[in-house]
Design goal:
binds fe (ii) ion; mainly alpha; 190 residues; 78% helix
């Protein structure tokens, strides 16, 4: 597998871990328990820092851009994915507000929180499925060796804080929670 595709696969694995933790928190709340607000805040901070600033640009500016250059036909799946990236910026803002509302009023906001967390998880799962099953296989067909070399080089300089080998301390509890769910430790499979 190309280095760039390995990097994206690792980042998707990290995001899938986040999604699983979030789903667990939603289920806990639905069953009358309390969500871990600090872990939820770490998730918001991570998503704000990682998909928005590190993961999406990799996809948009390198993989998707190169695919468009190599294809004479329009590629509708890329338009859908781009729209979803923009939608995700809005979703994470709303999710942040929902986490803070839940922190202030856990009983009153429990149902809203659980609904929003589960909707966000479904959105993430669906988005990554579309990339893994449609966009990335198409990239492998369209891109040339030169394209991949340039992309590999650019990706090597752009590090995701959770899938890298040494996540910052503020994400260590989140990383521990992800590993508790049985997902591989970040940095594995280099
Ligand atoms: Fe994406
Ligand atoms: Fe992605």
């Amino acid at each position: 597998m190309r280095l760039a595709m390995k990097v994206l696969a690792r980042e998707h694995l990290a995001l899938r871990g986040i999604a699983r933790v979030l789903k667990m928190e939603a289920l806990i709340v639905e069953r009358g328990g309390h969500a871990d607000v600090e872990v939820l805040r770490a998730i918001v901070e991570y998503i704000d820092e990682f998909p928005d600033k590190i993961h999406h640009p990799k996809e948009e500016d390198f993989i998707f851009a190169a695919m468009r250059r190599r294809s004479v036909e329009p590629i509708p799946v890329l338009d859908r994915l781009l729209k979803e990236h923009h939608h995700e910026y809005e979703l994470i803002r709303r999710f942040h507000d929902q986490v803070e509302a839940y922190a202030k009023d856990p009983a009153g906001e429990a149902a809203n929180f659980a609904f929003m967390a589960k909707s966000y998880v479904a959105f993430l799962d669906n988005h990554m499925r579309m990339e893994n099953h449609e966009a990335f296989p198409l990239a492998q067909k369209l891109l040339t060796e030169d394209d991949w070399e340039a992309i590999d080089k650019a990706f090597a300089e752009n590090i995701d804080p959770l899938s890298g080998e040494a996540p910052p301390d503020r994400f260590s509890e989140l990383q521990r929670r992800i590993m508790d769910l049985g997902l591989p430790p970040f940095g594995a499979g280099h």
